[in-house]
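Reopening this one. Same input as before:
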Amino acid sequence: MGALAVLADGPYMPEIPVWFRFSDENPLTLEPYAECGFGDLPPYIEDVIVDELGLKPTEWNALVDERAVYELVDPDRWFSLERFCGQVAARGRRSGPPAACPDCWGTLAACDADGSITGRVGTPHLCLCASLGQVAR
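Same output, byte for byte:
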């Protein structure tokens, strides 16, 4: 994984935004999403690349290598993660598939079921497994 920060009182687990731009910072690398290879992105961003942009991982990586992502996607264009965030909130504290992280189900997005991490009940946040480098997906 990248340079995910660990703060004095614990790991940095930012909220998963409902809307994002490819010019926004990837919490796993602290670089813009547009500068990150496919495997260095959270799975929910990879899904947008495949499902909404219609790109294969190799096509995305070629754009990143050529620094040409913004030729395809305007850096100020917003993409919605609303459906994904709703799915994360709906699963609450239920455990996922046996081989995946029980908190995020391999998506790197866990649900703050009691509001103790984000201050808001049901808010998706970056899972602790991402900061520990123990991602099973």
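So the earlier flakiness isn't reproducible anymore. For the record, Helices lie at 43-51, 57-65, 69-72, 82-91, 128-132.
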